Amino acid sequence: MLRFAQFGAGRIGAIHAANLAATRGTRLLHVVDVDAAAARTLADRHGAKVSTAAAALADPAVDAVIIASSTDTHAELAIASARAGKAIFCEKPVDLSLKRVDACLAAVGLAHAADRRLGDFSGGMRQRVGIAQALLNEPRLLIVDEPTVGLDPEERLRFRQILTELAVDRLVILSTHIVSDVDSSADRIAVMRSGRLLAHVTPGELIARAAGQVWRCTIGDGELPALRERHPVSHVERADGGLRVHVIARVAPRAGAESIAPALEDAYLACLHLADAA
Fold it and tell me: Which among 134, 155, 186 is the end of a domain?
């Protein structure tokens, strides 16, 4: 049986006490708080007694202490508990002001929704809340994974703008297979396949590498499956009674194919599929 004394009878303290009550082999013996009424309520609820810090730490039956009091008391209580030979579980200190929270919400365009329930937010708004949470501790590095998947066009555009603005004073790593996200916000691109780095270049350099490897031609509707078996196809549109396609290949994929300047998506596919043939 592990016996605990707890410093703090507020909201967090009540959660800790309830967790102890639900855990076999543990018991809460003492509750310490400057708010005597709160301490009494919590102690009565769990069969403990209201104590002073000195009395709780002097009790030889206490094996460990839970420090869930205000942050400014943590260091003093931790030192006293260590000197008393008690195991210490300390609530993580939080040093956040509402101004900082408001600033992070404003950075992602959610200041107007600060008082709304998260459950009422759209998918894009929830994505932005995640970014705001990541910004709370002012990280120098921010990593986002597929942040625009499932978003409507307006939310996707807004999210790209946010990432571009955030990259002004920090490093932002965006992991995505949506090339248009990269095209609008990245100054360097790393292309990977099966854990192997194929390129780490600027968008312009990647496009330059694909020069002479993108072809445009018009085909019949029924020819597309066979063409895709032979070559990557980066673009398809209906035109001239058939399909106008962009094909990635080192040489013309068929008679009449026209070499065109690559876009970033063309260059990305060329890097993925032609790298081994380089």
Answer: 186
Taking the alpha carbons of 42, 44, 47, 51 in that order, is the dihedral positive or negative?
A: positive
Q: Look up tokens 């004073």; give the residue.
A: 169
CATH number, position 177:
3.40.50.300
Of 158, 186, 214, the domain-final residue:
186
- Whether 75 and 103 map to the same domain: the answer is no
Domain that holds residue 273: 205-277
**One domain, residues 180 and 102:** yes
pTM above 0.85, yes or no: no
The DSSP annotation for the chain comes to -EEEEEE--SHHHHHHHHHHHTSTTEEEEEEE-S-HHHHHHHHHHHT-EE--HHHHHH-TT--EEEE-S-GGGHHHHHHHHHHTT-EEEEPPP----HHHHHHHHHHTT-GGGTTS-GGGS-HHHHHHHHHHHHHTT--SEEEEESTTTT--HHHHHHHHHHHHHHTTSSEEEEE-S-HHHHHHH-SSEEEEETTEEEEEE-HHHHHHHTTT-EEEEEE-GGGHHHHHHHS-EEEEEEETTEEEEEEE-SS-SSTT-EE----HHHHHHHHHHHGGG-
Mark whether 222 and 253 lie in a shared domain. Answer: yes
pLDDT along the chain (278 residues), means of 10: 93 89 92 95 95 96 92 86 90 64 88 84 86 84 86 85 88 89 87 92 95 95 93 91 93 94 94 74
